[in-house]
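Now for a specimen:

…
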Amino acid sequence: MANRLGNVAMRKAAPSPLAVAAVAAARPLAGLTQAATLAWDEEWVVRGAAGACPAVFGKTANELRGRPLGEFFERPESLADAIHFGTARPVKLHGGILVRLEAGPCPGGAVGIIRRQTGDELDLTRLVSALGHEMRNAFASVLLAVQSLTRNGEVASERGRRRLVVAERELRRIECVLRGLQEVGRAPVGRPIDASPERLVADAFTSLGPEPGGPRVELVAPEAEGEPAFLDPARVRLALEEMIRHGIRAVASGGRVEVSVERRPGELALVVTATGPDAVQPSSGVEVEGGKTLGLAVAEGVARAHGGHLESEGVEGGCRLTLVLPQRAARN
């Protein structure tokens, strides 16, 4: 179309929906120097970029557009997990640089916020992880010594043997706390796989050690094994251990702790129900001297890492904790 001067007016092409999505996601990040946004299509090609791209990727937004995600991320498939679970997840750029990614679907593809961790965050992560690792090494030697005394019958009296059982049980509780400490400082998350929830329950019971609830608490696990679920086995087992320990504390004076697995539409529920005559009612976290225990904080963190949540409620004669984990649709 000609204007008054006879020149042809050039109409600027409208930006693609993905480019608009990248800009919109970047608006709340204005002023942040370590965060950028990307929008990519179903072929995993960047179609929009905004924010502090040079600080995060070492490239401008224009240099990122039209490039496949595989040029920037070590494992592009980890982005699919972030989209599905809907939570911030640590991922690595080429060169080993660790960033946090929050992503979600949008028309024609997906959009994600990529944030580089600051030096303080990285230092704290390394410190907590190293502390947990060193403490577990020393702890493992003590546990091995106690187990050796038990197996070899080196303690003659019945009272002494009972004390060894209590010692091993408490040492395993400390081991779980130390693994929880490492979980707090854990950076990369394992890629979820198909695993049996019922087997994880059995493994969690084994990890609790001998007579975890004492003679007055009955522990009940699922009898039959069902279809596998999509999850991170090590982290979910840790969460189960903490939930079972919470149930045992709730009915310490006597009762029953039962773990069940519920396969609901689009999600998996791992349920720990504790009932007894003197059972306590949990809050959103177990209150011990006015604070939430590391155990349930870890369980909640595991739930969030999977895009799920931890439910706590009172039931008749006891309490219930439910770990809810979203599940992908059936895959070929």
